[in-house]
Specification:
There is one protein chain. By secondary structure, this protein is an alpha/beta fold. 27% of the residues lie in helices and 26% in strands. The protein contains six helices and nine strands. The strands form two sheets. The chain has a seven-stranded mixed beta sheet. The protein has a two-stranded antiparallel sheet with strand order 1-2. Helix 5 (128-140) links the parallel strand 4 (120-125) and strand 5.
């Protein structure tokens, strides 16, 4: 997935030797990077504790998996900083019976977090190699409530909508109209909006009575939403 620079930064240098070390690091990540910054939603915290983040980064970068930073996953993409994943998840106010659309599968980590909370996740990735690898990774981890599709996420997944919530993990220059159309009335979307490779605004978009309102949440820096030619 894509990334931002957060003002606060806590970096832990940990030499991992086994699953116990990863579990300790994951607990520390949730305690110091997420809870201390104000994330309190119990479902989000439980998901962040449960999902083994180190399985979603390249093998030679697992030592970075639980640090307070994004991690490169190839093709110019990243797995997002743990705090940002938790923040974007919490702000959607997810319920167990929700159907969620994600734009930008990346390595599949955000989809796995969502799948721990909601009934079904539909995730789109335009980079075929990333989407294919994420699909296999999630299947191997027995996430049977995640559907992965290789396509241009700008247009969403109309035949699977409408969605209770939509999360976009790359910066768009505007809120894509197809995504707004696929958001249920009463639904929420979180999306970074702004110029590529610049500081963007993380927006919360709420739909009510077929009208939308937006709220600026914070400044962020995500990689751009990749489009098909």
């Amino acid at each position: 997935m894509k990334e931002l620079v957060c003002i606060l930064s806590i970096v832990f240098a940990i030499d991992f030797q086994g699953n116990d070390d990863y579990e300790v690091a994951r607990k520390r990540m949730v305690s110091t990077q997420i809870k201390m910054r104000g994330i309190h939603d119990t479902a989000t915290l439980a998901a962040m504790l449960s999902v083994p983040r180190h399985k979603f980064v390249p093998a030679d970068l697992t030592h970075l998996a639980y640090r307070d930073r994004p991690v490169r996953i190839g093709y110019g993409q990243t797995i997002s900083q743990p705090y940002m994943v938790a923040f974007m998840t919490e702000i959607l106010q997810l319920e167990k019976d929700f159907k969620v659309l994600e734009i930008g599968t990346g390595s599949g980590y955000q989809a796995a977090i969502l799948a721990e909370i909601v009934d079904s996740v539909y995730t789109l990735e335009i980079i075929t190699a990333l989407g294919t690898a994420a699909k296999k990774r999630l299947e191997d981890m027995d996430y049977d409530n995640i559907s992965v599709k290789n396509t241009d996420g700008y247009f969403g997944w109309k035949e699977k909508g409408p969605f209770d919530a939509i999360i976009v993990t790359a910066a768009a220059e505007h809120v894509p109209p197809p995504l707004l159309a696929q958001l249920k009335d009463g639904g929420r979307m979180i999306i970074p909006v702004g110029s590529p490779f610049m500081i963007q605004q993380l927006l919360l978009v709420e739909k009510e009575d077929n009208r939308t309102k937006t709220k600026n949440l914070m400044f962020v820096r995500f990689v751009p939403l990749t489009r098909s030619d």
